[in-house]
Structures are given as C-alpha cells and as structure tokens.
Amino acid sequence: MINTIIAKYLMRNVLVLLAAVFIVIGLVVFGNQLVLVIKESLKQGIPVIDLFPLIGFKMIRDVPLILSLSLFLAIILSVSKLYKNSEAIVINSLGLGDKHLMVFIQPIAITIFVFILFLTTIAVPWSKQQRSMIMDRTENASEFSFIKQGEFQEFKDGEIVFYASKVEDGDQDSNQAMEEIFIYALAGGESVITLAKQAQKYTDSTTSSVYLRLKDGTRYHGFPGESNKKILNFDLYDLQIIDGEVQKTNSSYSKVEGQGTLDLLRSDGLKEAAELQWRLSQPLSVLVLSILGVLLGKASPRGGKNLGVLIGVVVFILYNNALLIAKSTLERGDSTPIVGLWWVHALMLLFILVLYFYRHGKFSHYLDKIAEQFSYKDANNVK
Q: What's this model's pTM, rounded to 2 decimal places?
C-alpha cells in the first residue's frame, strides 16, 4: 500500500516535469526548425503548400530525441526533489532504496519506450520518405522552373546567368517553355554565351537527368576579340541542368532512412544494418537512461541544485554522439553488425553499474576487505 502511494507520487512528479521540460525544449527546437525550413523554402523555391508538411515531418523526426531527453531530465529532477525536501530519508527508512525508485518509474519509461519505438520504426521513416518525395519534386522541377520573366537571374552560385524575355505560366514541373533566351555559363574554365529563340525543359525518363532544349540559337565560346573564340549555330541543343546520376548518388542514403523496418530486417547491407540498429537504439536508450536518471538524481540537501541535471545533459550528449559515431563506423564497414551500436549501450550499462556501486559504497567496502586481508597477513608475518 505504501509502495503504491510512493510510486504514484513519484510518477506524478515525473509526468509533470516531463511535460514542462518537453514544452521548453520543444519550443526551442521546433522554433529553430521552423526558421530553417522557411529559409530553405525561400532559397529553393519550395511551394507554400509544401511548407507546413515539411515542418511537420521534421518535427516527427525530432520528437524521439526530445522526448528521451525530457524524460531523462524529468527523472533526475523528480528524484533530486525527493532528496532536497528530505522525503527520500523517510522513503529510505521504510526500506525503499534506489532499486525501488527505478521500479516505480518503469511504467512511464516503458510507455515512452513503446511510443518512441513506434516513432523510430514506423512514423519517422514514413516522414523522411514523405519529405524526400517533396524535396525530390522540388529539385526535379529545377531552379529553372522558377525563372522570372524579363529578369537576369543567377543559378548554381553564379556559374550560370540566365535570362528569358518570355516565360509561360503553364506546367512548371516538366514542360515549361521560354522565348528569347540568354545564357552565360562557365564550362571547364571557359566562358560560354548561348542565345536561343526558344527553350523548353524536359526530363530524360531513362537517366532522370533534366535538360533545357534550346531551339534556333548560337553558342559563343570565349568573348569577342579573343583568338580562340568559337561560334556554333544550332537548330536544337540540349543543355543538361541536373545530372540524374549525381542526383541518385546524393539521395541514396535518404532512401535507406525512408525504408520500412521490415525491409531493413531482410537486407544484408551495412547501411541498412546501421539504420535498423539506430532505430532500435533510440527507444532502448530510454530504458537505460531511466535507470541512470535515478542515480544522478540522488543528492544530499547540501549538494549542488543543478549538478545532476548538468551531468545528465553531458552524459546524454556523449551517449547520443557515441551512437552516431558507432552508426557511421558500421556504415563505412569499419565495424560488424554484431558489434554495431550495441557496444555503446553495453558501455552505458557498465557506467551505471560502476556509479551504483560507488553511490552505495560498495567500492569502499571491497577496499576495506582487501585492506583487512593485507593487515592480517602482515600480522601473521610479524608473529
């Protein structure tokens, strides 16, 4: 009965602090994401209709990490509050120690574990897949889809200057037509000026490369007056503006992140194994951190108020960075799937074990026993 009352009291404190910490961290992270997505949309010309879905997908991606950190800090603060208010003294006098507190918070930890497992294995991959589809649609439309009529515009960091006197307002995705074209570009260190009466953008279905088909024009290699100047007249000329192979290479890893968890289980690739272990590691870290949070929250009334929280934040950052390093190592083939990301969790469990023994004076107890044995041997030698 008493255990139930204490367990409910502790869980209520953890839930209140969890909500408060999650709101604070969420406002900071999601607010920053909102600004970044808006900047990205202005830079890449992402349609307004896709803006809010992109923000939502990024929020789904960040929820597991924020929720895990929030729960970890909430446990530290809740247990620390018990010690600061001397409530832990009463709890300990009833024969309830750290092990009991760890058990009391497990219903919350397990609930969060299941929720994050759902997010990392189903919701987050789906959101990354949806985000990738929107970004691919925007990239495939090309920067040239957003050309303004009668204005000089720079593309590819100034490597291309483009002008069209007339731009159709029709389908901007694949068949945008333009008239009276001027293009200045750098090709192999040489200046090339292209003039054409008409142009139309199209995508090669085989290679996924995007071209600008120029009609009735002239290409000038070099500036007038230069000895190596070349002039080429053409009826049709296809200018590649997006390399399909480069685009596939750049998006290959995002496709792994968007794969279903069952597909990753069936695959033998290292990237797939790394992604699968990463998805499982995030919810698993919740259970590990819930145990550690009880130990870090344990403090004396004279101890630093925020020392446990500070240590907790540092440990959380190191833990997640170690997982990312292990994931990258596995992707490169410098590790094996058997070792994978699991060594990081094993190291954390070892750290918890050492901290638990230290908190309960187990080390001093063993050292005292060793000292007694040595003193006993010395006494026998003297006799």
A: 0.70
